[in-house]
UniProtKB/TrEMBL annotation:
This is Fe2OG dioxygenase domain-containing protein. Pfam families: 2OG-Fe_Oxy_2. GO terms for molecular function: dioxygenase activity. InterPro entries: 2OG-Fe_dioxygenase.
């Protein structure tokens, strides 16, 4: 979408975006707190009404296919820079392998998630988050992953809407896999809200590439940890270069153990399309979604 510098607020947001992009290029990671993120998203088109709706969109999530403590939906989108738009792609199964630095009991398993529906897809906050991510990462060179097509200008984004739940029977793990990467070029995580969650829950630890895959967050050599960030407030957002950093998370703990604790997130996995020989090659269609079409202009 085009941003017209017609007000002092808009000009300030443009300056902020330039600074964030420069910081991202230098540090390969940015954490944007709610107080900074909301004005950016509003200039990018998010409405006050949709900001409120986003806080409860996770109430419609379904049981996760492999994790009993999680509710989930996903959807595939294309950052189509050739056409200056973001568009919804057709449904495909999802797979992430140990070879992509993701070591868990379901590594390499083909999973099918319930699809993100119009309640999220049609929300102007989501559209603004997509545009924000595009403005920050487009054109940033990264360490390339094997079997991805770096000749195309376009990217595929798999978006997950997730709710992690801790109750009397289960401890909710935002990253049961421990130290990992997400098999993509750029990962962005945005906080939607929580209920009954302790203030020290769900801390994201960022590691260098020496950290051993599958280690628990509290078992990593401190020399391999670069820092930590915690999503505390609505729309706190973390964005990093996935193949240059690993990460892990601490669990969700309940303030009142008699009631469930929940943590709601949007996770944006963004990478180049795969080529033949990649585990996701059978599930990487670039065809637009026919039942749930969506297009957001980038120019």
């Amino acid at each position: 979408m085009a941003i017209q510098p017609t007000s002092a607020v808009t000009r300030a947001v443009i300056a902020e975006l330039i600074l964030l992009r420069e910081k991202f290029i230098k540090n390969r990671l940015i954490f944007v707190e709610s107080a900074r993120m909301i004005p950016i998203l509003k200039v990018l088109g998010a409405t006050d009404e949709d900001l409120e709706k986003t806080k409860t969109v996770s109430d419609s999530l379904r049981d996760d296919p492999t994790l009993p403590f999680r509710k989930s939906k996903n959807g595939r989108f294309c950052f189509d820079f050739e056409q200056s738009q973001i568009r919804r792609l057709e449904f495909q199964p999802f797979v992430l392998s140990a070879g992509e630095d993701f070591v868990r009991h379901d590594s390499g398993q083909t999973r099918e998630f319930q699809e993100i529906d119009e309640d999220l897809q049609g929300n102007s906050v989501l559209h603004a988050l997509f545009v924000f991510k595009a403005l920050i990462f487009h054109g940033v060179p990264v360490k390339q992953r094997p079997k991805l097509d770096y000749h195309t200008e376009n990217f595929i984004c798999t978006l997950f809407n997730l709710r992690t739940v801790t109750n009397k029977d289960l401890v909710g793990e935002p990253a049961l896999e421990g130290v990992h990467s997400d098999g993509v070029d750029f990962t962005m995580t945005t906080f939607l809200g929580s209920e009954n969650m302790t203030s020290d829950s769900a801390v994201t630890f960022v590691h260098d590439m020496r950290a051993k895959n599958a280690l628990r967050w509290n078992k990593v050599n401190p020399e391999h940890t670069l820092g930590s960030h915690q999503h505390r407030n609505f729309l706190d957002t973390l964005l990093f270069v996935d193949h240059e950093r690993k990460h892990s998370l601490s669990p969700v703990q309940a303030i009142d153990p008699e009631r469930p604790a929940t943590r709601d997130m949007l996770i944006f996995f963004t990478r180049k399309p795969v080529v033949e020989g990649h585990i996701s090659h059978p599930y990487d269609s670039l065809n637009s979604h026919q039942r749930l079409p969506m297009r957001v202009d980038l120019a």
